[in-house]
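Field guide to reading this record: the first block holds the primary sequence, the second block holds the structure written as discrete tokens, and the final block holds curator observations. Each block starts with its own label. This record concerns Protein phosphatase 1 regulatory subunit 14C, catalogued under organism Onychostoma macrolepis.

BLOCK 1 — SEQUENCE
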Amino acid sequence: MSTASAETTAQLPPAAGRVFFQPGVGCAGSGPIQRDDPVQKKQGKVTVKYDRKELRKRLILEEWIIEQLSELYDCEEEEMPELEIDIDDLLEVNSEDERAVKLQESLSDCYKPTDDFVRELLGRIRGMRKLSAPQKKSF
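BLOCK 2 — STRUCTURE
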């Protein structure tokens, strides 16, 4: 081993490029590692039921809506008037014009022009699917 490679190795952080094994866990022949993490299990069921990409798109859209409404109403989310924009309700409406009318009705008390917001929101929901409500288990 040359001096140059010894110096390079010595300069690396201790964990860089190394794999560590925990003694007695996941040894050959012991089968897969099992975890009892109820949060992780619940998340798995939700994402399988709804499709992770669709949930992610929905979350990004909802954050965008809140940001836009804050600008339209010149206030923080907590101070915003009672207003509900239900994406699933909009997706149930068949025509863009009907969706636009429904949105404009929801924004009737906004003193700023809402046409750009409505147009952008309709463009963003185009191609989205309605999410069905999760089924409640009966005990």
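BLOCK 3 — OBSERVATIONS
The first helix runs from residue 3 to 11.
Residues 2-17 have pLDDT under 50 and may be disordered.
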